[in-house]
Design a protein that fits this description.
The structure holds 2 protein chains of 2 kinds.
Chain A lengths: L2 H26 L1 H4 L5 H6 L7 E7 L5 E2 L4 E7 L4 E7 L11 E8 L5 E9 L7 H10 L7 H4 L3 H13 L4
Parallel strand pairs in A: 4-6
Antiparallel strand pairs in A: 1-3, 1-5, 2-3, 3-4, 5-6
Chain B lengths: L6 H33 L13 H28 L2 H32 L8 H20 L5 H15 L2 H11 L19 H43 L1
The chains are: A alpha+beta, B mainly alpha.
Chain lengths: 168, 238
Amino acid sequence: MTRKRRRLMILVLALLGLGTATALTLSAFRDNIVFFYSPSDLAAKPPGGRTVRIGGLVEAGSLKREGGMTVTFQVTDTAKSLPVTYTGILPDLFREGQGVVAEGKLGPDGVFTATELLAKHDEKYMPPDVADALKRAGHPGKPGDTSSGGAPVAAGEEHQTSTLRTHP
Amino acid sequence: MHRFANPARFLKIANAVLPWVAGLSVVCFAAGLYLGLIASPPDYQQGDTVRIMYIHVPAAWMSMFTYSTMAVAAAAALVWKHPLAEVYAKAAAPLGAGFTALCLLTGSLWGAPMWGTWWVWDARLTSVLVLFFLYLGYMALVDAFDDPARGNKAGNILLLVGAVNVPIIKFSVEWWNTLHQPASVFRLGGPTIAASMLWPLLLLAVAFQSYFFAVVILRIRAGLAARRVQTLRLGQAG
């Protein structure tokens, strides 16, 4: 074995070891790395009195203004949903059907009181006229779907899973 | 690949390529910036704020491209002792750091109105910040030794260790819940970005890429010249 070969072997082995160690560490700390929990996560692992972040879609039709700067709405991951109340300024992208991340505490009454609200943007970019055309056609799919017109149901599902993406 | 590791042969090719990549960069910057900042439509959700994306995304791509190529160069330098590989890594580092800083800065400017925050410690933002520190750490480390050969070796090892961060950046938005949105262009199932917005983005990506090649060629030339000066000095002293 030449010296170059030996150096290459050492390098490959070291990188493999490092990669494995990183993968193990990251999967062990998965619960700490996620930025927010879904309503289902929260139901499975109640946080008690801790401050946590929850995320999901603002359920369509659930947004209510309570007077002043207080709003209530439901955050859903399509399996479970959670009532949230928040007082303060809403971010630009906050709207029904869009992703949202809220930081706060879960009360004993099951209502999540948010102290900070962040809007989550999905990965779709399109001009307003394309969005209107899609809406008229009845499916919030990706921009490419306008011409093909294919699989509106699949496109709708993709929209929800990609916005939410809870860890497997 | 080994053929081009010869500095003289590399310089011959690089000098021929340089005016072309420089010209390409100028043309693509002009066309891409015009299309992106003026002629392209606003987004249905974000309005005109979407235009930040035309700078942010190419900068982010380049930050990862630059680091990946530096890591490959580090491996080549450690295993095959190619003289050009170390010169390349040192030449590319400040460019990569600049791209990463631009990416973080524009992302922050976009996040403030859209998310409602300048910064969060989610997996994507944090791993990109780590990438920025890796660049700074590499640049500090290679020059921290009296013996340049030892500095280069330490820097190469740092580059290879830091390479685990690159897939973490790319897949952070899929492995964990993050505030940052998932990929829109390089994803299974095709881009989720309208063609009228994809074109300026791709033009600017080419502009950033060719800018990188042009500047890195200039910096490699300077790096090789500095090495020659050093060898000559050592020859005179000895």
